[in-house]
Structures are given as structure tokens and as C-alpha cells.
Design brief:
alpha/beta; five-stranded mixed sheet; 5 strands; 20% strand; globular
């Protein structure tokens, strides 16, 4: 079992214990988080759906991200990641969501947002949304893999914390 599948299995156990659902929105990872989750037998009992919103139009059409947010902050921003995570909750039956948007490279970076810049957001239907930006190094595949790992670890941390505070 791969490291990502091990993390996904751990996340699944936490969600099953709570009777809750997950959905995801991915841009630069192109569905890799959803693939890691659905590699786990029985994930249909806790994973609802994944949105691959690679283009800005897809973010708007599928998740309800506003054009003004995209124009003001750019697709690779915590503001857009938050809007994506909230859009997932609005367009699914999930209790939890994760969103990933970034620049995997090898091109597309800028001095303000270099290749390897990835923004994440995690949201909960009961309320609350957190966002973070990371800067990963390595080639395109490495940036994407690190992004999925970071998103899964973020979910495990948040779902696990909610389990202990309930």
C-alpha cells in the first residue's frame, strides 16, 4: 500500500467512526487525492465525490467560485482555495471538504507565486474553513504528490480533532 493510500485509509477510519462524508476539489493535483481515497476498499461509505476544477471556468461553473475572487486573488490563492472548499460542501452531501490549487510546474510560476506554490483549504459543514499556503520543491510529480499528502494529513488532523472535541 502506498503512503498516500495509508493516509487515506486512516482518514477513512476517522470518518467512519463519525458517520461523516468527504468530498474534494482539486486543481493542480488533477484528481490524485480522489484516486488515493478511492483506492481504499469501502471508501464508498465515506467518500462522496471529487471535483477536478483545473480551469478557472470549472471553478466557477462547478463550485461557484466568483469571477471577482479569481480576478482579485488569482486561482492560486487561499481565497480561491476557501471558495473551492465551500463550493464542495454546497455541491455535495459531504461533511468535510478539502481543496487544492497550485502551480506544479515546470512553468507557470512568477516571482510572487513560484512553481511549487500550493494553496489548501479544509472546510466543515458544521462551520469553519482553514486555508494554508505551502511551497514545495521538486519536479511536477513531486509537487503534486506532496500536495496530496499535505491535504490528507490536514484532513486527518482536523477530523481527528473534531472527534476528540465532540
Amino acid at each position: 500500500m502506498s503512503e498516500l493510500e495509508t493516509l487515506a485509509e486512516r482518514l477513512g477510519r476517522l470518518l467512519i467512526e463519525r458517520g461523516e462524508w468527504l468530498a474534494a476539489a482539486e486543481s493542480c493535483t488533477g484528481g490524485w487525492l480522489a484516486q488515493s481515497v478511492t483506492a481504499i476498499a469501502g471508501s464508498s461509505t465515506w467518500f462522496d465525490r471529487g471535483f477536478v476544477t483545473y480551469s478557472n471556468a470549472a471553478k466557477v461553473d462547478m463550485l461557484g467560485v466568483s469571477d471577482s475572487t479569481l480576478e482579485r486573488h488569482g486561482a492560486v490563492s487561499e481565497s480561491v482555495a476557501r471558495a473551492m472548499a465551500q463550493g464542495v460542501l454546497d455541491h455535495s452531501r459531504a461533511d468535510w471538504s478539502a481543496a487544492i490549487t497550485g502551480i506544479a510546474g515546470p512553468s507557470g510560476g512568477s516571482p510572487e507565486k513560484p512553481v511549487g506554490t500550493v494553496c489548501f483549504a479544509w472546510a466543515r459543514k458544521e462551520g469553519g474553513c482553514e486555508a494554508q499556503t505551502c511551497h514545495f520543491s521538486g519536479d511536477r510529480a513531486s509537487v503534486r504528490m506532496q500536495s496530496v499528502r499535505y491535504a490528507l494529513n490536514g484532513l486527518i488532523e482536523r477530523v481527528g480533532s473534531a472527534a476528540y472535541s465532540a
